[in-house]
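Hi, here's the filled form for the chain we discussed.

Project: internal
Contact: R.S.
Residues: 395
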Amino acid sequence: MPFVPSHRVLPRAAAICALALATGLLAAASRRGAGAETAGFIATLGRDTVAAESLSVMDDGSMTGVSVVRRAQTTLTRYYTLTLDKDGNLAKFEMASYPTGVQPGQHPAIHTIWTPQPGAMHEVIRSDSAYALDLLTPPTTLPYLDLGFGMWQAVTMRLVRSGKDSLSIPMFFVADTTHYATTVKRIGKDSVMLSSIYGVAWARIDARGQILGYAAPGSTQQVVAARLPHVDPKAWAAAFAKLPPLGQLSPTDTVRATVDGAKVMVIYGRPSMRGRIIFGGVVPWNHWWRTGANAATTLITDKDIVIGGANVPAGEYTLFTLPTPTSWTLIISKLTKEWGTDYDDKMDLVRVPMTVSALAAPVEQLTIAIAPRGAGQSLIVSWEKTAAAVTLRPK
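And the returned structure, exactly as it came back:
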């Protein structure tokens, strides 16, 4: 997939800037302190603004930041500091998270501090109680911060400082003893690709490696982020508090049906359009898709069945699809219980063609159904104004 160019990443920023100017949230110009550069990010998911972040970056890449994330029922404000040593590795990372209405100085929802030890990262976590974890990981490790763009910028700045075309960087979550490799790779003079546990994202960067625009179509997060000269996290937290709950972004649903005696079940996440172009946009053409959200879509059958003319023995599988502008293919994988971005074509059981049709009215939320069609039954994937179907019958 090509990098999303600036004219696709940043027009959204122009609209956000206009809104910010009208509400007094945007300063007139970039602010610079002694040895530090201050900027911010606004992240959108379709028509919904889901995060705002302000950060200051020191000359050595160390940073402080405040990230406000709009959740399903509440908003979290997270204060963080990332301190690097002379080699650019993590010397200390500290993050405190506060729900709506709770201010710094009061009891945070979670307060966590990471410091390196020989061959490991030591994490002290304070919530209702205090405990510690040791993560066995190399010194190049960096933390993830969900919808925290300062951490992605720490990755891209490290790539630029290294002078290399690509880096593999271990990253970890709060209270998680496993690290996950993130690869950052140059794909142009001012653009990079980030491949992580979330999936794939693209970013435009400046000469220092600071992120100018970010887009992650097809990934778990699927957000677009625009860099602004200044973002006021408190103002955005107050604005988020006045909005109706965002709702669960991609709730899990289960489809159950009986196909001539075979009990068939499909478990999948249901993302919504949210004003976005889905096929050819959120879901890229000519690339496998998880056909849902979050964890891979699961198919379970208690008896042998035939899907699109292919024999599928009783058991558990995961489903992916390959949409193109002219046709769709259903991929049935033998790999199970994986995240939706972990597709491995070596584990394919079979691939079968799907019948594609246009819908008269758009479907806001992805829907998978097993329904009668003709003389038999079909598994039907419907979203936006497209339906793709494949036949189901007993063996």
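Let me know if anything looks off before we file it.
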